[in-house]
Design a protein that fits this description.
By secondary structure, the protein is α/β, with parallel strands linked by helices. Helix content is about 35%, strand content about 20%.
Length: about 475
């Protein structure tokens, strides 16, 4: 972060500052929400969550040398002597207001990446490409909500040349303010899928919300660009909601950027790109498996092209990319190959994981270990049934379903293929007993399912085995 006077933040949030005593002219050296990370000259945002209230740590913050704290009006009496206070109605809202004002002090292109599935991977792929040419700021992990987005924006410095920010939503009306906060030049929508249907009701509700990114881009004449997944059923709807220039990228005809998958190996997917600029045509590879990963890579290439990146940077960036934790990360233990896709899940991303499992090279059996999908509302049972039937249709050899919806998934997968467990503790020994060297196992479930715990337990036990050498798979 580049320093700004405290008065800058007070004005942005329309805060009452007390005590003043010259603090308004002092410069804030960083904006922090974690009291443990506060340093000298920092501005601390006292956020109140479901389990913790940061106002409880104001004394600690003062002792660590903070310049000031943003506090709620009804908590102002708790501010210790010697710590300036920016008093607001809601520190969380003020955090976003200050981040938006700070972002507007920089003249650089910001890319917002939204969509139902693939946001983080697409963001990371794009950042890997852009960083070959520009000093790039990117959001960390899945920092995509009204706390994560401001935290990223406060990482901007005058040396940055471009920023890539993931934006997410799980309730109607959340996405638009995040996009406005970022003030992007380019927007990327990865997909419209069955996310958070408990709140969005159906796909039309998801599309209505995700379209907020398209609506808030600059016009084509002002340089605004919307990059869409050309395979998305709602691409026309999204395009109709923007005045920006629209670019389509996807596998198949009708896209400006297209790809043909040449090989899907363990640890490497090779594909050929056809681009509007012939200099970008040719073969590329990524260290991610899956057809949907190639679509995400195409979105990254198309976006990087709009920002002036060269073809060699695109190839090198994709080749050097390493997947984020719990997102299509490939592992191997005891002769068993493991695909860790445990970060989150909805019906569409489950389908993509199953298709990837089917397409990966395998000398043994293909095994799916699937946790519950959350926040689907009335679609909960039908979605789990659909996933089980898809596993059967794709010829997945075994489905281990875990959680409250496990019976639905396993029953749909069919006798002899699907088996249900109510919890991780009972599933772990059964899976360990079943898998053999040469098998490929995918783990996936919603964040609340914590499938990474089951995967890590299995990997630890498999590493104790002494496997026969694995035959090479293409």
């Amino acid at each position: 972060m580049d320093p700004r006077p405290l008065s800058f933040f007070a004005n942005a949030a329309q805060a009452v500052v007390t005590p003043f005593s010259g603090a308004a002219d002092a410069c804030v050296t960083g904006v922090v929400t974690d009291s443990r990370l506060v340093g000298t000259g920092n501005l601390f945002i006292a956020l109140k969550g479901e389990r913790h209230d940061a106002h409880d740590h104001l004394g600690e913050v003062a002792a660590r040398g903070a310049l000031a704290a943003v506090v709620a009006r009804d908590q102002a009496h708790r501010v210790p002597a010697g710590l300036a206070a920016l008093i607001v109605e809601n520190p969380r809202i003020a955090f976003g207001q200050m981040a938006a004002a700070y972002r507007r002090t920089f003249d650089l292109p910001v890319v917002c990446v939204g969509g139902s599935n693939g946001k983080t991977t697409t963001k990371e792929l794009l950042a890997a490409i852009l960083s070959r040419r520009f000093r790039t700021l990117k959001s960390q992990g899945s920092f995509n909500n009204d706390v994560g987005v401001p935290a990223t924006l406060f990482g901007l410095e005058s040396s940055h040349q471009v920023a890539v920010q993931e934006v997410g939503t799980n309730h109607p009306g959340e996405l638009g303010p995040l996009v406005t906060m970022c003030d992007p030049k380019i927007g990327v929508t990865t997909s419209i899928g069955r996310e958070h249907l408990e709140y969005f009701v159906d796909l039309a509700g998801v599309a209505a919300e995700e379209g907020a990114l398209a609506e808030r881009l600059p016009s084509a004449s002002a340089g605004g660009v919307l990059v869409l997944n050309g395979e998305c059923a709602f691409r026309s709807h999204l395009a109709s909601r923007t005045s920006a220039r629209v670019v389509h990228a996807g596998i198949g005809p009708g896209n400006e950027w297209t790809a043909t998958i040449r090989a899907m190996e363990w640890g490497r997917t090779v594909f050929t790109v056809q681009a509007p600029d012939s200099a970008w045509n040719g073969d590329y590879f990524i260290t991610l498996p899956g057809r949907h990963s190639v679509s995400n890579a195409l979105l990254g290439l198309a976006t990087a092209y709009e920002l002036g990146v060269l073809p060699g940077d695109g190839r090198d960036g994709l080749a050097a990319f390493q997947p984020a934790t719990q997102r299509l990360r490939l592992r191997e233990a005891g002769g068993v190959r493991v695909l860790d896709d445990t970060y989150n899940a909805n019906a569409d991303s489950m389908m993509a994981a199953l298709r990837t499992l089917k397409d990966l090279p395998c000398t043994g059996r293909r095994v799916a270990v699937l946790g519950d999908m959350a926040e689907l509302g009335p679609e909960t049972a039908p979605a789990h049934d659909e996933v089980g039937r898809a596993a059967a249709r794709l010829g997945i050899d075994a489905v281990f379903a875990v959680g409250t919806q496990a019976e639905t998934t396993a029953r749909a997968a069919g006798d002899g293929r699907g088996v249900a467990f109510s919890n991780i503790e009972t599933a772990a020994p059964a899976i360990l007993h079943f898998v053999l060297p040469g098998d490929v196992v995918v783990f996936k479930g919603s964040r609340s399912a914590r499938m990474e715990r089951l995967m890590e337990a299995l990997v630890r036990q498999l590493e104790l085995r002494t496997p026969d050498p694995l035959p090479k798979a293409a």
